[in-house]
Design brief:
By secondary structure, this protein is an alpha+beta fold. Helix content is 25%, strand content 19%.
Amino acid sequence: MSQSVLVKRVINVFLVVQFCVAVFAQEAKTDPLLGASTNTSQTGQTGVGMGGFETTAAKSGKADGMGNPALGGERRPLYRLNRSDVVGLSFTLSPEFDQVITVQPDGFVSLKDAAPVLARGLTLEEFRLAVREAYSGYLHDPQVAVALKEFEHPYFVAGGEIGRPGKYELRTDTSIMEAVQIAGGFTHEAKHSQVILFRRANDDLVEARVFNLKQMLKERTLSEMPSLRPGDMVVVPQNYISKIERFLTKPSLSMYLSPTQF
């Protein structure tokens, strides 16, 4: 074989290889699967700054949500400020503005040398941003940290035909039956088959559900007993209740509780 023929064959092979590489590169750009693989971290970790896995990691660990708590809409709810909560503000570059403030009955807080800010219903991060905005006209790029000093501990209220009606701290996961026992248990006049659980749906609406604890105990279906949430109210009636609305306004709760119980 002559040298010129050998050179031509080598050139042809080189051109074919270049063509295949170009075709493969073009397919990789159009194929979403191949395109996604280029962002994979060599360490296999997930989180912020890890390429294509950032969104997945953020969603799986997301806290809080705006769903209705009565319908189970919040799986990892963040604490939201309420009346009488005490919050500490620390300014990194302006310590003269450091202060400890209390959420007033109207939901606002009075800030030093700044306009009042609505705090009730906000998470700590939302409140921090609101304070930062309030001081933006007084300080250049204010840097503030928020710390929750005092807050109302989770609680439930028990009333009706039980031994010790009142308000109790909700320290651990507590079922409706355990709540009755904490409050002194049933009286002789209690209607075990119609225990009512009131749960706040929003500021003006309360959800009411009736549970037959007598049947649950008899059938040993204790796993079906609901767990209480902060602010729930358990009422054990004396007389038969023929009908109860699913949702009630807060003033209508007075027909189920006597003020003398508390």
